Amino acid sequence: MTEVQANITNTTNTLKTPKSVEVAANNLPTVMKRVVIVGAGFGGLRAARALRKAPVRVTVIDRQNHHLFQPLLYWVATAGLSPADISSPIRGILRKQKNAEVLMAEVTGVNVQDQRVLIGDRSVPYDYLVLATGTHENYFGHSEWKQFTLGLKSVVDATSIRRKILLSFEAAELENDPEKIKELLTFVLVGAGPTGVEMAGAIAELAHKALAPDFRHIDTKSTRIILIEAAPRILGALPESLARKTQKKLTRMGVEVRTNAPVSEIDEYGVMVAGERIPTKTIIWTAGVSASPAGKWLGTEVDHAGRVKALSDLSVPGHANVFVIGDTASATQDGKPLPGIAPVAMQAGRYVASVIAHRVEGKELNKPFQYRDKGNLATVGRSYAIVDIGKIRLTGLIAWLMWLVVHIYYLIGFRNRFVALFQWAWTYFTYSRGARLITYENEQET
Question: pLDDT by residue (tens digit) across 222-280?
Fold first, then answer.
């Protein structure tokens, strides 16, 4: 629907000029170049902050009013943290940056000829444009599966999963039929990348430890957590030795790991995997992502996942003043595609900001974007993580402590760091999950 709307908007834009949204503070010279950044994720926000001393007017546009620390979404989904603990208002983050402003709006297209970002019947002019628009779930040609699964890309997604998980236990407590109880207490995760692995471990801890003392009629320790992966092994982006150790850890935690097991069918009754039907009421999709429609807005070449094929300076072919970063960009280094992870997006944001700052001053930054690999980290339940940084490959408690330090460091705001650290410490010693709230978007859901 968004893509159709974008195409319609781009077509009609040649016939009429949308109302303009004037940008920047009144006390800035009007001759300053206008930089519009679409998306306030890791890359977009880093680009905006890196331009704080540049002689430009920065406008950040996002459909949400908050920056989200996505690596900890699974912790919200399993009742370990509340959404506010991993989110910060974009306006608050950029409050002291005098050359920046924030617009909460849904971008529907880009008119590259007139250099305007379209937001419905309005538009925002730009001299430089940075697209950092993120991703959505990729169902690999089975869009009908979306209605039966839960994704994990936003705060709403996380709270929906939390509600679904907790309601399953509540419904099982009221149920007398053993088969229905078994179905309610079966949780299937499709996709064994870092998100799937972390979610599986967190649900196992929640069910087998945190909730066990609270229910009287069901045994939450009998909960089945099934992690399904179509590939030969889990964590395909990590070394096989770490993936093997992680799978053993998951198995010890009570997670059923099934590799070489592509999903053939998903419906309201469960999942069909390798000819076997698994009855379940909860299916969490962590299998893959597709880029936003940014490539269609620009009318440029994209890869199989919809990411814009960027040049070495992360600009769009044919549009030197338009840049793509993070999950919006398809970029290669040493002949290999760069992964869609936060460190890549943040480094790209800083780099593009530097390119823009140089051009505004009449200079050119002639060096291409070069990603400095800081490794990969993932956690699997309580006090266990995996670390892959250069020649350093660790698992266990030390790796978990490293994972904890990195994630606390990158959280925005002292309050969020303090609360997250306290919650982790509390959970570590008590197994308790303090955010076990069942909330509804509206009364019709009750």
Answer: 999 999 999 999 999 899 999 999 999 999 999 999 999 999 999 999 999 989 999 99
Q: Give the predicted TM-score (pTM) of the model.
A: 0.87
Do residues 79 and 435 lie in contact, with contact meaning Cβ atoms separated by under 8 Å?
Answer: yes
Radius of gyration for the alpha carbons in the chain, expressed in angstroms and rounded: 23
**Between helices 342-360 and 42-50, what is the axis angle to 10°?**
30
Active site residues: 198
Sign for the pseudo-dihedral over CA of 354, 357, 360, 365: negative
Q: b/e per residue, 141-173, with b = 16+ CB within 10 A?
A: eeeebeebbbbbbbbebbbbbbbbbbebbebbe
Structure tokens at 275: 């000819």
Model confidence pLDDT, tens digit, residues 322-336: 999 999 999 999 888
Give the model confidence (pLDDT) of 104-133 as tens digits.
999 999 999 999 999 999 999 999 999 999
pLDDT band at 438 (very low <50, low <70, confident <90, very high): confident
Chain centroid, CA 394 distance in Å: 25
Q: Kindly state the average pLDDT of the residues 161-166.
A: 97
d(CA 60, CA 97): 12
Backbone conformation region of residue 19, classed left if phi is above 0, alpha if psi is from -120 to 50, else beta: beta
Instruction: Let me know if 189 is exposed, middle or buried by CB neighbors in 10 A (0-12, 13-18, 19+).
Output: buried
pLDDT at residue 95, rounded to an integer? 96
